[in-house]
Amino acid sequence: MPAESQTRPPRADAVRNRESLLVAAREAFAEHGMDVSVSEIAQRAGIGKGTVFRHFATKESLTAAIVSGRLDELAVTGRTLLEAADPEAALLEFMTAGVELHVSDRSFCQAATTDVRRDPVVRAAADRLSGVAEALTDRARRKGVIRGDITGQDVIRMLTAACQAAAPDEDVTGAWRRYLHLIFDGLRAEGARPLPPLPPTA
Amino acid sequence: MPAESQTRPPRADAVRNRESLLVAAREAFAEHGMDVSVSEIAQRAGIGKGTVFRHFATKESLTAAIVSGRLDELAVTGRTLLEAADPEAALLEFMTAGVELHVSDRSFCQAATTDVRRDPVVRAAADRLSGVAEALTDRARRKGVIRGDITGQDVIRMLTAACQAAAPDEDVTGAWRRYLHLIFDGLRAEGARPLPPLPPTA
DNA sequence: ACACAAGTTGACCATGCGGTCCGCTTATGC
DNA sequence: GCATAAGCGGACCGCATGGTCAACTTGTGT
């Protein structure tokens, strides 16, 4: 059998542990931000600290895995939204989902300020997401409802902007909807004013 | 002399040291974010670590002092902008100054995500700033150039939003101007759509 | 049933942090 | 000048963290 896999498949309990670890990490990060200790995550997952480092050589790579996972989640919902009938509504819904993600996950807000984004894994996920955003924007733009000088990158940026405005503090009241709408209005074609062009390097 | 100050005035060198400390802290925070060590700041200021803690009992209070200082800077420029002829331009310029502040200071971006904002000193400065923003917004709104349902709080929020969008990474190219304009367009009266109301608690 | 490798674990280590303390220096008032 | 207390500094402490390791457990193929 020439096409045989060289390495044995991972043990069953290892797979289980990995899963609990990922779940625990996702929860812990969401609740307390990216600076929860590895020990705490391990405890939460019901496994030893050593096991964590067996699955992820470093804490950085763990966080990278979680963050990139979140990005991919959003990319997936974005991709399904590409099938939606109304491009404008779809774009708004996409952005809404993005902000919701940020609001429900403290670590995700911090991620924007941190070096995690340098990580190749995260970079890749971000690029995938960018592609989806670009497609969604394209559709809306083609329909003329969105100003012509807006890129997918812009949409992503404005999305993170909206959730920043959403007051990451005790405000669970959903004030972010207000700001998202405000920003979304700025994206609309009607009443648009010319935008300063992006500097050459970008 | 009944109105005499109870405590002796601080020593001259103490004043000097305090000043270097503040300058060093401001620079260090701006460059490396809020997690620079106290020792590093002390070294940078050319004083001992103990001296830092003499002036500020805790690191938290140091950061609070710096952050509130920055907020006050912005409040000052805002106040002078109140005298400007064109309310719209004034508002835009105010927001521009705010974003510029964020972009030039890594710690300031992080501050939005952290607990520093709970600190009473910071709270007070933020309130002062809020007042100025409210006044500036009022003027612009009264002239009808800004949509009617916008508050000063909104302006502040959108300001921090803009600088979040400004890609706090290596991007020194000033792409944030683009996003600020985009957001500012969303604040304009023309083409505005009704905003979802703020939840009751806010 | 067995042997063995894959996997687990928690004690352990090095490091870096915020914060303390006490002996020393120095500005200040007379 | 001198006495005095305000100010200074850096060795030091306790603590938490990311990461390692060697002894032990357990799933798996035969």
TrEMBL record, chains A, B:
Residues 37-56 bind DNA. Pfam families: TetR_C_43, TetR_N. GO terms for molecular function: DNA-binding transcription factor activity; transcription cis-regulatory region binding. The keyword Transcription regulation applies. Keywords: DNA-binding, Transcription, Transcription regulation. It comes from the Bacteria. Gene3D superfamilies: Tetracycline Repressor, domain 2. Residues 15-74 form the HTH tetR-type domain. The keyword Transcription applies. PANTHER family: HTH-TYPE TRANSCRIPTIONAL REGULATOR BETI, HTH-TYPE TRANSCRIPTIONAL REGULATOR RUTR. This is Transcriptional regulator, TetR family. It comes from Microbispora rosea. The lineage of its organism: Bacteria, Bacillati, Actinomycetota, Actinomycetes, Streptosporangiales.
